[in-house]
Amino acid sequence: MSDYELLVVARWPLGGIRTYMRYVYRHLPASFRITLVVPSTQEDEALRRDAAEIGTRIVFCAESALTWTVFRELRRGRFSAIQSHGFISALHGTFANLLFRVPHILTVHGVLEERLVAGIRGRSRLLLTAMVIRYVDVLYAVSNDILEHLYQQVRGLKSSGNRKVVILNGIDVTHFSPALPAVGGIREELCCDTNTVLLGFLGRFMPQKGFSLLIEAVAALVADGMSNLKVLAVGSGDYREYYQKLVRQHNVEKYFHCLPFRADVAEIYRELDAVVMPSLWEACPL
């Protein structure tokens, strides 16, 4: 066995969680060996490339088989620790780990939204979340705001016996250096001349990201006479079709160009005039 065997559980290995894994795990010492257990998603190929680049073994499974797959990996290997990304991942990891008692780290990338903890079902979800949080050995939040929010939501958490730490997210800025040459192609693909202001939205299509606000803002600018702009929206998510319908309803289709998930975001950034971040809230915005 290597010096440190880490079993990573990620129920939703997209967006910020995937970015975290790409930037953090590559900087771990060579003595670390990582096994990543994830449900299959539309970004499997990108995850395979990431895993190969950072030397991580990846295990895909059906979402319904996540607990069993984690249990199977624990039974086969001798892991030093489990790191679960998010509450649902930690729930799977907790049940799978009942017989093994491997030290368990819960990394929290977001807050408990009010809509998810409202009503009878919401209170049940909150109780289950509180149980999982207390059961892990380390609660690792990616921002101080997240930890303070959890203290407010989960009664008795501050005095519980597990360790709480905050480690702020970081990013390798050299990867996005404007000094690196732009590969080109995006502006030509969108027929953008030098007078066109190219705005970029890169992220998941979901309510918290505020994409509807961006649609309304573009519609207002167009109505005010500004027509030399385009928005390049790159990402995936359950609300993609809904936002495309909203774009049509505001009659601004020609100002928006949507692309599915792209791995070459650094190259895209270098061709944009500005990045738009209309999020309603973020756990740790860069």
- Overall tally of domains: 2
CATH architecture term of the largest domain: 3-Layer(aba) Sandwich
Outline type = globular
- Report the structural category: alpha/beta
Descriptive notes:
The structure is a single chain. With 286 residues, this protein is α/β, with parallel strands linked by helices. The chain has two domains: 4-166, Glycogen Phosphorylase B (Rossmann fold), CATH 3.40.50; 175-275, Rossmann fold (3-Layer(aba) Sandwich), CATH 3.40.50. The chain has ten helices and eleven strands. The strands form two sheets. The chain has a seven-stranded parallel beta sheet with strand order 3-2-1-4-5-6-7, sandwiched between helices. It has a four-stranded parallel beta sheet with strand order 10-9-8-11. The two termini are 37 Å apart. The mean pLDDT is 89.
Which helices and strands, and how do they pair?
Layout: E1 4-10, H1 15-24, E2 32-39, H2 44-54, E3 57-61, H3 66-76, E4 81-85, H4 87-96, E5 104-108, H5 119-135, E6 138-141, H6 144-153, E7 163-166, H7 186-189, E8 197-202, H8 211-223, E9 229-234, H9 240-249, E10 256-259, H10 265-269, E11 274-275
Parallel strand pairs: 1-2, 1-4, 2-3, 4-5, 5-6, 6-7, 8-9, 8-11, 9-10
Helix pairs in contact: 3-4, 4-5
